[in-house]
Amino acid sequence: MDAPFPGALPTPLHHCLGYPSNPDSTMDSQDQASLEGRAPPTEENERARFRELHRVDIDPNSFSAFVTSAGLEKVQEYHDRLEAVFRVVISNGRPKESCTALWKALVVSKHCSFDVFREVLLLTEEKHPDQIKEFLRLAYFHQYPTRDASKLSNKQMVDAIEGVVANKPEKPRDSEAVHPDWSVDIVKAGFQAEYKNSDLIVKPNLDLLRDMAGAWSQINYKAPFTSIVGPTMSGKTRLLLEFAKHVCVVYICIRPPDSSGQPPRSSLADTLLPVDPELKSNLHLHYSRFLAAILEAVADFFSSASMQGRKSEDQLAAWFEHSFQMDEKKKPDKFSSDVRTKMKALPATSETETMNLVEEAAKKMHDSIQFLENGKLKLVLAIDEARNLLPSEDETFKISYFQAFCRVLSQIPPSKGFFAVFTDTISKVANFNPSASKDPSLRIPNRGYKLFPPIYKLATLDLMARPIPESWKELLSPLRLFSYGSPFYGLYFEAAKNRTHMGAIEVTMSIATEKLLCTTVTPSAQELSKSQVFALLGSTIQTRLTSSDMNAELISSNAAHCMFISSSRDLIISYYPSQFIYASAANTFLASDDEIMVACIDCLATSMQNGLISCGDPGEMATRIILLRAMHKTKKITCDGEDSIPYGYSVRLEDFLETLTGVKPQQLHFGPIKNAPKNRLLQNGRIFFNHFTPVEYTPNATDLLELLYRGLAVQCKPGQHGLNELFPIYLPPKSKSLDSDKLSHKNISFCGIQTKNQTDSIDWSDSHKWSKSGAGIKDIQNPYLILLFSLRSEDKPNTTRLKKAPKENPPEWKKPLDKTDQQRAYLNFLGLDRIACLTPKIRTALKRLLNSTPEDILPLHKPDRRNPLDPHTLEWIRRQNPMFYDRRNRANVYPASPGTSITRDTRKLHLQVSTPSPSQCASKAWVSTTTRPQPLRPPGRCRLFVTIISTLTKSLVS
Question: Three-state DSSP class for 111?
């Protein structure tokens, strides 16, 4: 058992780290003596020591968490031992700055592996075993301050520090419990899967790169590079691998050393991200030598005798085998060794002379690759996981790796067939292609300043879509549904199902949730970020945002797709295409906790109020949320022999309506529809959807069947007559084998939604338009359903949940004008209190959404609804927009005293003008308590004119 460390706590740090009983050479007798009489530690002193030893401006919260986990005395002991081992290394000739910079790279920024850390400090197992073990124990303690390392080997500690799965943190990530070891093998196999539609993806984007390489000019452009912009799982890395079949690609993945992602970190990543202060002091010189060595190594390979006379595809295949490192278990590729060797062999020259080396190497590379038909592009330097280039690291100019590297790229001469590509998942467009007004990079005199446009048109969605389902069982197949959208999920699920049938859905869904929320730890309702909220809502109810910054965030971090980037890169549009896997993940998360649903609705209401939503009516958005909520709460239909996807299953129409109303459908009034078609609709009807998509057409029966295939509901086109949303209903004939009967468009029907977001009464004279014929839906020969949601209606029942059907008859709808349209059933939902599946908190949140209007700036100054708005701000807002508010809420701008009469013709309007007191302002309703004035009644001809205008307006709106 280890001997106690002098001055330590009963559970000392040395025990946690497994220090030997006899102090080694790391801490000499003077160090030991100084610790015997040291003063009690203070958090302020230890914070300062931490900052000095780690060369970082620490987050106060993170340091406090470190102290809370480890204890202040253990933190002091950690600092003492780190200073002691640093003194030993410094005495061997390494400067302190190098030690602290490398330590930061190892334990803070994670840019450095332990092998690189050890090599740069010139530590060997033969001469410095004690120092190596000490550094490992300290690094392990820094990362896992509450874990015992006394029984761990050096390799086990290295694995834990660098994030190998076998050594997990004390508090495991939620995903680790469901991500088995074979998951990585499946991802690796995905890179070898057949690549489909190359002519739609690879060829056009390769042509773009060729055009860019041909257009490269130091007079016009900043450097020969672009970026590939796209969400996670959209095929960016695979596209780079496909490029390698047509041109020479130097691929370098610079993901962190502790990452288990695929492809693995390349051997050259350590060279591209140097941690040695001597190299970082002049990154421009370092990168010039690095780029020259790469170009020289490429030229040597293709100039070798073994390449002469071979076909172009054979030479490129040989280069792929020579240079690509796609398996971390294999030895480093020969190409990486060649580059390092050439860097060492390059003469020590000045920056200017090194630039000449780059130019000469580019010419050699160009001359060596003569076998390509299109000579505009010969070499693509592809940097994957490029976000790791972004931190500011250059010690001289205080610029990022990326900016320094781009300055070196700018030295490549034109017409040499060279171009660089940066790609990443969680980096924004602005990181690599900033707008002109926000470009932080250095301007080089007498050089161009334009940037090449990013590449984002990757037509990879639905490449793995399965054949159309023949039966209801095939319709609900997880493999078929997961194959829509990103190619990854269908391939992954199919492979996972072959490994383990029981957990395949769970594992695939967990990956989708992580990608959608950009986290491996499940956030609470209070922890949800705005981007996470819009990832959940965007993939389900289709929220579109006006903020380019938020759109860029959603693309980079939350699986949204880039639909447009302006040439100046100041306008970015994101979109969530129909992907069943993401919709299922989002619905599962939303349904897991009512507080999460409330938080998302509140965020949507605030964003709508702030004008961040580019299109959509708050009432229609509320309706979509209500429909999804009802699907969450309705029991599923079981399908024999097929596992169901969480919140990706079908339900019976009658169960769905009971969830919405709280009443047995047999007790509800569906209008004058005959019993036979009504019973068929209710008893046979099946529905299947978990997200919405906008359309630009009016769906017919065939369209509705295809929507059913994808589990989709529809957000109707702008100006659609009669309806705002709709979803398919399937009416199978009676059979003993419903799940295996052939699907047919003849059995398709639909449910249409008409939403009214108004406080005044409904104009029932328009109700004939809320129909199949009124909406122009063709080829439907079956009974159908229309739901009217008047969400701000004050027509409320006595209880929030109906136990039986209301006794009063709802207003009868006008019959459709088409006499053949006789199978319409309908229901009214007059107010949120009529909807039984909502909780009081969700109702309250939806009311805030319904009342959000971007034109009203009042809520912007009242972010906390619990606290009243001060009278000064209230009066200022009313005066800023004097005619926006109802007369009761307008500012008193007239000089006359209360009671002044304003005469128009012979009629008088008595305005009761009063200024609210502070107590009135603080009340929930800040309107004047005076009598509401009667509006002017227009005389004769004026009344007729108003009637005409009113009728015309209603016609245009409908």
Answer: coil
In terms of average pLDDT, the best of 27-41, 68-82, 516-530 is 516-530
* Sign of the four-CA dihedral 928, 931, 932, 938: negative
Nearest to 27 by CA among 72, 63, 69, 78: 78
CA atoms of 104 and 109, how far apart (whole Å)? 6
Q: pTM for this one?
A: 0.72
Alpha carbon distance 557, 570 (integer Å): 19
Helix segments in 128-254, DSSP class H: 129-143, 154-161, 182-190, 198-215, 236-243
- What is the tens place of the pLDDT at every residue in 882-891? 565 655 675 6
Considering the domain 197-255+272-433 in this protein, what is its CATH number? 3.40.50
SS3 content of the chain, % helix, strand, coil (to 5): 45, 10, 45
Residue in the structure block whose two tokens are 């304003």: 902
Mode of pairing for the β-strands spanning 561-565 and 572-575? antiparallel
User: Two tokens at 281?
Assistant: 């002091």
> How far is residue 605's CA from residue 611's CA, in Å, rounded to a whole number?
10
Per-domain boundaries in the chain: 13-171, 173-196+463-595, 197-255+272-433, 650-852, 858-940
DSSP state of 447: S
Rg, the chain, Cα only: 34
Alpha-carbon distance 924 to 918, whole Å?
12
- pLDDT digits 0-9 by tens, 604-616: 999 988 888 877 7
Nearest to 458 by CA among 419, 488, 496: 488
Q: How far is CA 382 from CA 240, 251, 379, in A?
A: 7, 5, 9
Contacts of 747 (CB under 8 A, 6+ apart): 730, 731, 732, 733, 782
